[in-house]
Amino acid sequence: MNCYYDNKISNFLKDDSNKIQGIINNRNQLFDAGIKTQKSWQIEINILKNQLREFEGDIIFEYTIPRIGNRIDVVVIIHGILFLLEYKTNDKQHRKSTDDQVMDYALDLKNFHKESRDRYIVPISVATDAPYFNYEIAICDDKIFRVIRANKDSIKEIIESILKEFSDTEIDAKQWINSEYFPTPTIIESARYMYANHDVKDISRSDASAENLTHTTNSINKIIENCRKFNEKAICFITGVPGAGKTLAGLNIATQNRNRSENEKSNSVFLSGNGPLVTVLQEALAKDLKYRENVKITQARRQTISFINNIHKFRDNYITNNDIPFENIVIFDEAQRTWTKDQLSKFMKEKKNTPNFQMSEPECLLEIMDRHKNWCVVVCLVGGGQEINTGEAGIQAWIDALRKDFSSWKLFISDRLNEVEYVGTSELTEIIKDIDYVYKSDLHLGVSLRSFRSEKLASFVHAVLDEKQEKAKDIYNEIQNYPILITRDINKAKNWVKNIKRGTEKVGVLASSNAIRLRPYGIWVKSNINVCHWFLSDEIHPESSNALEQTCTEFDIQGLELDYAVVAWDGDFRIKDGIWNYYNFRGDKWERINKSEKRRYKLNAYRVLLTRARQGMIIFVPSGVDKSIDHTRDKKIYDETYNYLLGCGFQSID
Question: Which CATH code of 3.30.300, 3.40.50, 3.30.9, 2.30.30 fits the domain covering 211-273+308-445?
C-alpha cells in the first residue's frame, strides 16, 4: 500500500474515528504499531476532523515515499495544493528536526515524484501542544513554501491563508498516490538502502536516459552466473562519466551476491582504495544497521566492514600467505587508482619488510583471486579522468597482469574503454593485443545521475577543462535548474549556499589540496578533517560540512557528494592566454609543474571538485592583491582565470 488511508475530506469527516483508525491498522498489518503510534493516529484524526470541516479536497494518511521508505504523516490536497503535515503529538515546542523532516519530504516529492513536480507544496510542522507561532508565508522559486509551524488549533488558519493567495488545477488523488517516481539518491543513501536488501531499481531513476544502470548490473550478473556454472574466471571493466552510478552499480552487484546459499559457495565484497569513501560508507551502514536491527554499534561495524572494505587492507590480509579469499566476487571501485609495481614494491619494502616484492597491485589482487580452484569474478569500476595521486597504475596495469600470468581469464570490457580519459594517450588496441576479450556496451554508464537537475554537467565541466570556452558556454545555455555561479567574495559564496539549502541538504567548501594561498580567506586545506563528522553529522556539529568551517579536498570528497558546493579556486590551476597552467606552492612561491603525469593529477583534482554538487555550485576566485603586497596572491594570477570562467558561462553574483 502506498498509504494507510485515503478519502475525500467530506467522507473523512463523516467516517467514525475508530473506523478510520481501523483502516490504518489493517493497512499497517506488516508492521507492529505500538501504543504510542496508535495514540498519535487517534490524536491526528481528531485534530483534523476539527480543523478541516470547511474544506473540500482529499486527505491521505501515512503516504509512503518509495525511495527512502519513510511515510508522511498526513497529506491534504485542496485546490490543487499539497499540504504536508508532520506531527509531533503532545509536543509543547517545535523542533528543527521536524522542520527539516517535513521539508525533506517536500523536496523529495518535488524532485522525484512525477505528479508533484509542478505543484505548490506546503510543508507544515505540527507540534500539537505548542503555543501559537507567528508564522510567515514565504515561497521559493520551485513552488515549495518555507516550513510553517503549527499547533493543533492553527492548521485551519494556515490553510486558509495559503488558499487566499494560491490555487492550482485540481489533482486526481488516486493518480497522485500511484504516481511514477524517479529517485536519484546520494551514494550514502544508496548504500544504506541496498544493504537493507533493496534492489537498485527500487532506488534509482527509471527514465529512459538512466535505464542502463539496471542493464549494467544485469549484464554483470549474467557473467557471474556463467562463471559459477562453468567454473570460469572473468574480469569485467565498467566505465562511466563522473556521477553516472559506477559505485551504485558496484554496490548493487555486491548486495545481490552477498550471503548466497551454502550450495553456491559464493560471497562478494565491495573494495575501494578511496579511504574517505570507505570510512563514511562503513559508518553510515553501521548506524543504519544499529537502528534497524537494534544491535550494538560495535557489532554493526564488524558486519559492514565485511561488506565494504579498503582495497589495501584486503590486499594486506592475503599478500604474505596463500589463503583463499572467502569471496568469489570482488568489486574494485576506481580500479584505475590501484598502485603501480614501483609504488607497491616501495610499500612492501618499507612497511612489510619484504624487499623482493615485485608486483603491481592489479597483479597482486588477481593472484589472490586466482587462488580459487573453481571460479571467481573481478569487477573493475573505472572512472574517467579520476586519477589524482602519485603511483596510480591505470588500466594498463590490469591488462598487463592478465597477459603475464592470467591469460585463461575471460575479459569483458566497456566499448568506451578506448577513450582518452580511461587509457590516457595509450591505444586500447595496443593494450589488449594478444588477449581475447568481449566488448559489452552495457558496461558503460554515460549519464550523470549525481546532478539530477542537469545531465549535461559532466559535459560542461569537460569543456571547461579542455579549454573549449565557446563549447562550454553553449552547453551552459542548455543547462536548466542547476545554478553555476561565480564570485570574488568568499562570504557571498558561503551565504549563497546557506540561503539556498533546505531541510537536511548538504553543503560544503571544497578546494584543491594544494590551494595553499586561500588561507587568507579562511580556507585551509592542510587541516585533517574527520570525514564521518563532515558528511554524516548534523549541521549544528562544528565539523559538519554545513558549518562551512572546514574545507574538503579532492582526496576526501572523491566518490562522495554534496547538494550545493562552494568550490574555491587557487593559483595552482590557472588560465594564461587561454591555456591551463599547472603549479604547486612550495616555500614562498608558486612552482610550475612540468611532468605530464602530475599535470594530469592537477587537472583531475579540479574535475573531481567541479562534479561533486548534485544541485548547484558557486565558484570563489579570489581578487588577489597587488604584487608588491604579496607576490603569491598577485591579482594577475586570478583575474584571467575568473574572466575565462565567466566566458564559459559561470554567472557572477558580484
Answer: 3.40.50
